[in-house]
Structure formats: C-alpha cells, structure tokens
Amino acid sequence: MNSTFHSGLVKDISLLLKDSNNFNVTIHVGENENEGEFKAHSIILCARSLYFKSAFSNEWVIMNNNMITFNKPNIAPNIFEMVLKYIYTGELDLTKQPGENILELLIASDELLIEELFEHLQDYLIEKRQIWVKQNCVVVLLTISKLIRCKKLQDYCLRFICADIRPFITSKEFLLLNKDILHELFKRDDFQIEVIVVLEFLIKWSIKQIPELGKKNNQDEWNIENYEDLKNILSDFIPFIKFTEITSEDFHIKVRPYKAIIPNNIYEKIMTNYLIEQPKSYTPIIAPQIDSNIIKSKLTNIIINWIDKKHAKYIRTKEDKLYKFDLIYRGSRDGINNESFRNKCEGQVASLVLIKVNQINKIFGGYSSIGFNSIKNDLLLFDYDGYTSLSFYYSSDNFIFSFENNEDIQNMKICRVIDYPKAILNHYTYGFNFGHGSLYMKNRSLYVNNECDNYEKNLNMNNNFIIEEIESYIVVKQ
C-alpha cells in the first residue's frame, strides 16, 4: 500500500519562497510608479506554469552569472505576488481582494497558462462576486473580450445584460462595447428587443467608431466615404436585423435616411415587403428567460408552454401569460445535498427544478405548482404506510421532463402527473420526489423511474445518475 504525505510536501515547497539562498530567477514586474522585483526558482515556475516552461527553454530570458532576469511590465506587483503564492503554496485568499484585482489576476493566469487558477477565478467571480461583476459588466466584458478561454464569464455577463436589455442598449455603456462583444450579444437567443430600437442604437454605436463622423454635427455633412465606412462597420450586423418587423412609419422616418448603408439586395426585399403586406404596428413577444447554467434560453418557451398546458412548439402571442423565473437554489453555489435543497426550496410556491448529470448529455427537470416540500398542513391528503413524516400532496399541474442536451428543441419528452393526489412526496430523505419515485433527488444522485404509476411513462429509462449541477426557480406569473 502506498503512503502519501502531500501536506508535508506542500509545506516544504512553500518554504522555498522565503529561501534566498537558492533563487535563480529575478522577475521585474509592473512599470513606472508601480514596479516590483521578485525572486523565484526556475524549476518550480516551469513545473507550475507552461508559460514559464516555454519562456525559459526558448531563450526569452537574460542570463547573468547563472541568474535569470525576466521582465513582465504588464503584470502589477500586487497581482504577481498572488500568482507566486499560488505557485508555491497552492493557496489563495481572495476574500479581501477588490473585484478589479481578481479580474487582473484572471488575465495574468491566462497569460501565464495556469489553467487551474484561471478556471477557479472565473467560477469565483461568477459565484462569489456576482454584485461586482453585474455593476462592472462592460468593464469585465472589455477586459476579457480577447481571452478565448473566458467564455464562461463572458456568457454570464451577456446573460445578465439580456435579462433586462432595454436599459442597457439605450445607455452610454452600450456605445463602449467593441465589435467582438457586440457580435456575441447579437447572436444570442435571449437578445430580444424591438428591432427599431436595436437598429437606432447600432447606428449610434457605429458612428462612434468613426472619429470623423463624431466631428460632424448632422447627417447633411456626411460624404460618400462616411457612408461607406459606416456600411463596412455594420456589414456583420445587418443580417441580424429583422427589417420586416419594423413598422412602415418607423422605416420611413428612422431607416430610409440610412438607405446607403443597407446592401441593395436586402433593401429590395424590405421594400417588397412594405409594398405588398405590412402591418400598421408591430408588438414583439418578449420571451421569458431563465438565468441558467444548465439550459440555453431557447428551451424557455417550451417549458412555459408546458406550464400553460400547450404544445411544446406553440408560438406565444401578447395575449399569453407572462412569467418570471427567480433563481433560489444552485447546487454549485449552495451545495448538492438534500438539506441544502430543502432549506432553499421550501414552501407552497410554483417551482421549477433543472438537473444536469455527468454521465450523459441529457437534461432532466420537473415543475410543481405546489413546490417540493414543507407544504402547509392543510394540503396534506394522507400519510404513506402509516409514517406521518412521509406525506403526499395534490396537484393536477405537475410534470417532469427531459431534453437530449442543453439546447435540444426536437427530442424533448414530458410526463404529466396522472395520479393527482400523489403528485409530490415530501420526506427528509429526498431533496424532492415527484410521485413515489418517478423523478427524485437523494443527495448527489438523481433517480429516474419510468415504471412509476404516478406520472406518464415517456422518459423511457430506469436509472440513477450523479448530479453535476442542479438549479431551482420560483415561477411567478406576471
């Protein structure tokens, strides 16, 4: 049997950071008024950072008396100090660090190719510094826009923006976005706002990108080259604009003056639409959104349609009910276990649960119009097998479901409750339990039982899985 002594090993290596006798690297960081010098060991830097391993082996460094001199002016001393502590000790205390420092540390860990630290910092900002990230969303996006591996944090910021898009797109902050971020924003399924508003502010954004236009007081002063520059900037965004959803009045007043920036073939199609059939007004249907790490926004309408007992692909209109989803529990943040779920998700309130498992791509979930547990006593119908703590509750609206993956809109399955008095089973041994075992959570495990008679048998599987992520939302009708 092998014996391991990791704690002693880490302790001894961490002491090397203060051992001035064996340093062979001097690293100069920062610049001007904010400079610093650090001593380190090349062998440890190479072992912990692919960047240093490559730098020291490719003669990027200056050697003098067997001492390596290395310059990193783009990393501030306080940031590099945290990097070194992580490299030598595997420890990092971010609790007292301002958000700006954590963001700088994220950039440094990406440049130095320290994968573990990079992923941890992304998760930390999303899970522990949500308020700061939301208050500084544009700064964060601009800072990470060139980091290919930072999609998780970028997606979090864009989801936050899209959850309340109108105030943002009409703000000065919108004009600060660069082309890459704006393109990612326009590609999103949850980017939903009136087309004319998008076009108006997209033109304002484009004008800001051309310094010469900023010096001209009105459009009458523009020349052919100005229009051509504007057309080139907008070329990647014009395909996203659904011109036929703009009223004829708005088109005449707000779009026609910019005819020169719209490709001829697109403009001809628009005019054909207005000449043949154009509604007097257009009211967009803003789909409700779920701020989820588990499913893509395109699945939201399907779940809403199921709640309203409509077909999954029903096209919603302005007459349909509006919903809001308030996140109350996320496993990666609150802990994946029965107690945590029950504490966060108690009460008689319409609720949705989403579950991602780690063995397959499938997404599972369930909706309960009466919540999952701790329901008021007056809803108790009967106890099961004489145990007063094991109680069933009534609902005719509950259902469980599955998607093939986080954006599947073709092969979803739904199982509606058929034994109304046994819609939900409440017992402390479960986080939640639909029926008597159709779909239930037992700490980190999710159980799917297609043989249970309380719900329809459409999931076509009997299995249990390890829960990778789980979320629960209160469903509010507006």
TrEMBL record:
TLDc domain location: 293-476
InterPro entries: BACK, BTB-POZ/Galectin-3-binding, BTB/POZ_dom, SKP1/BTB/POZ_sf, TLDc_dom
Organism in which the protein naturally occurs: Rhizophagus clarus
PROSITE patterns, per the entry: BTB, TLDC
Domain BTB, first and last residues per copy: 23-96
Pfam families: BACK, BTB, TLD
Name of the protein described by the UniProt record: BTB domain-containing protein
